[in-house]
Amino acid sequence: MSVAGELVVIGGGLIGAALAWGAARAGADVTLLDEGDIAFRASRGNFGLVWLQGKGLGHPDYMHWSIRAGRRWPELARILGEESGIDIGWRGGGGLHFCCSAEEMEQRRALIARTRAEAADISIELLDREALRERAPGIGPQVLGASLSDLDGEVSPLFALRAFHEGLVRHGGRLRTNFSAREIRRDPHRGFAIRDASGAEVTGRRIVIAAGLGADALARQIGLEPRLMPERGQIVVTDRVAPFLHHPASAIRQSREGTVLLGSTHEDAGFSTATEVEAIARLCRIGTRLFPALRSARLVRAWAALRIMTPDGLPIYDESPEMPGAFLVTCHSGVTLASLHALDLGPALARGDLGPAPRSMRSARLAVHPT
């Protein structure tokens, strides 16, 4: 059965859901196609950080795009909470990157200096051990200090995803689950037709491919070549312990419920989502070095998920030159950039364009040129 619509977003993960919500909120007739639990759902393995420290160094467009996202997160969290009644776990106030050696402290000083040279609209300060102990009293003896960024924060990716899905429906959009898009073709009367593995079909005047690692095969059908690669990340979580960490950090964060997340790895493991004892042990060693009291906590779960990586690590925002009205959106920073995807890019796609998305992030930059 074919369902006609104005805009069809392929991919019901955090990127696609944010775009669909934003477009529906702007008044577009939106259908969101979600593959369901069989998908490589990146939000299952996302650490939940809105993270700006060091992001985009050497790539000014990406840096300023990310900083803009960080500034819009409080607004997005407020709107999602008011609309859905779901506490998405948003907490701002800055994030910590711990340093356990003099060399690491010097590296952070250099990063802060480069950031100040490239972007004046983000504040990062370097805390020495004494200043850090005022914010995190339980740090271990090897921790010499930390950098603190004013825009960093945290959120629960899965609660945010649920809020986007529910908000989409509230704004009149359609959420179609268990739809595994396989084929895209032009439809002379309705724009585009998307067919799934079972032969079911959905049509729309415009489409957005936001299907994570599944976007590669679909993008080729509209003449784009993103060359996406999987990166495995493993995370471990402890049982609930008394509150001790009130800022998210690059390697550790404590949820509102009291559990402690330790992570995450960056591995080239193909499409494997298996966990490995050695990686889990390494994450636990890092966590207990930062906060020795965690040695008494119990490890209750470990899991792995796949991130979506482009060859240069930057997002892709593109429209097919062969099939105008067919767009591709993909990135590995689905949490950090969710505010812009929802509040800026979704409404732009509702109008039929990429709005404020930087032109330097088109997929043509990744073209393989003969030597």
From TrEMBL:
One of its GO terms (molecular function) is oxidoreductase activity. InterPro entries: FAD-dep_OxRdtase (IPR006076), FAD/NAD-bd_sf (IPR036188). Coiled coil: none annotated. Keywords: Oxidoreductase, Plasmid. One of its GO terms (cellular component) is cytoplasm. PANTHER family: FAD-DEPENDENT OXIDOREDUCTASE DOMAIN-CONTAINING PROTEIN 1 (PTHR13847:SF287), SARCOSINE DEHYDROGENASE-RELATED (PTHR13847). This is FAD dependent oxidoreductase. It comes from Paracoccus denitrificans (strain Pd 1222).
